[in-house]
Design brief:
Blueprint: E1 5-10, E2 14-19, E3 23-29, E4 32-35, E5 41-44, H1 46-49, E6 59-62, E7 65-66, E8 69-70, H2 73-86, E9 97-102, H3 108-120, E10 126-130, H4 131-138, E11 149-154, E12 159-165, E13 168-175, H5 179-194, E14 196-197, H6 200-210, E15 221-228, E16 234-240, H7 241-264, H8 268-277, E17 279-282, H9 291-299, E18 303-305, H10 312-321
Parallel strand pairs: 1-9, 9-10, 11-17, 17-18
Antiparallel strand pairs: 1-2, 2-3, 4-5, 4-6, 7-8, 11-12, 12-13, 14-15, 15-16
Length: 330
């Protein structure tokens, strides 16, 4: 049986897998539930995510990736092995060639950890590509011409900002401030202001439901349940879009600052191209209402949200897989 070519967006929040000829065949949360006592894997993906914050003491739901890199090697390997077996990606006599995306500033040690985890989970040859480059390709940008393209990819663990030309990254910055940080900001804000403890899933649903950068467009209220820190009892409060904006404003400012830094380091000819073409916003963070307009105001360059921001990276892996024979293994 011929080996299969597989693209993996190994994200902090989600794992997406692209199979050449089939398209995106998996999109599951990067979560593994294990039994503390036996170290046995009990559930992976969505089934494990449902267990976060809701399990007895002997069961723990772990997110093995942190800030876009492997935080727990063994659990990452177990998760990848589960997905590769579930999708029957290994042939009888062959292993799939695998293209994995990683943040633009990860160390050689972190790169080796990703490569080793994929090989031990059942992959064959492993290729690594920088996430902003792959996101730009997946968003439909033609980065192989001698002209400037800029992308801001806000994922779960990292935000990658990059200017690309001739198929390569010209200047880039990666920061460990993204969707997960927004969730932590929201939970911390609620804890400080209301003395209420809420879980990360509650914080995430607030962000996705009522998050907005332009309050004139969307100023909603949502009821949330948590545990009162004073009485220890369950309590319900109403939370507004305005409060949410206040909670994540520092993190948004850090992303804006990173984008400005990248623009300042960009050669003038490429800057002119970016002003003409605008900046592409990809990743789950692109779904926050009004973020494109907030960035446009701050950067003085038009910012556009990609058509399928969540899938840009994995779709980009698919396009690169088509030319895999021309890519030297990094």
């Amino acid at each position: 049986m011929f080996s299969k070519d597989v693209g993996i967006d190994l994200g902090t929040a989600n794992v997406l897998i692209y199979l050449k000829g089939k398209g995106v065949i998996l999109n599951e949360p990067s979560v593994v539930a294990i039994d503390r006592n036996t170290k046995k894997v009990l559930a992976v993906g969505e089934e494990a995510r449902q267990m976060i914050g809701r399990t007895p003491e002997n069961i723990v739901a772990i997110r093995p990736l942190k800030d876009g890199v492997i935080h727990d090697f063994d659990i990452t390997e177990a998760m990848l092995k589960y997905f590769i077996q579930k999708l029957k990606l290994r042939g009888f006599m062959s292993k799939p060639r695998v293209l994995v995306c990683c943040p633009s500033n990860i160390t050689p040690v972190e790169q080796k950890a990703i490569r080793d985890a994929v090989v031990r989970a059942g992959g064959g040859e492993v290729y690594l590509e920088e996430e902003p480059k792959v996101a730009a390709i997946g968003a439909g940008m033609d980065i192989f011409q001698p002209s400037g393209n800029m992308v801001i990819d806000i994922g779960g663990g990292t935000t990658d900002v990059a200017v690309l030309s001739m198929g390569e990254v010209v200047t880039a910055q990666s920061l460990r401030v993204a969707g997960d940080q927004f969730d932590q900001d929201i939970a911390a804000y609620i804890k400080k202001k209301y003395k209420l403890l809420v879980g990360e899933r509650t914080a995430e649903s607030l962000k996705m439901s009522i998050g907005s950068m332009i309050l004139a467009d969307k100023n909603d209220t949502m009821d949330i349940r948590g545990r009162d820190m004073v009485t220890g009892l369950p309590k319900v409060i109403s939370f507004t879009s305005e409060e949410l904006l206040e909670a994540i404003s520092d993190s948004i400012e850090m992303i804006i600052k990173a984008a400005k830094n990248v623009l300042e380091k960009t050669p003038p000819e490429l800057s002119a191209d970016i002003i003409d073409r605008g900046i592409m916003l990809t990743g789950g963070g692109a779904l926050i209402s009004g973020l494109d307009r907030r960035l446009t105001e701050e950067l003085l360059v038009p910012v556009y949200v990609a058509e399928n921001p969540m899938d840009c990276v994995v779709l980009g892996t698919g396009m690169i897989l088509d030319n895999l024979n021309n890519i030297s293994k990094k």
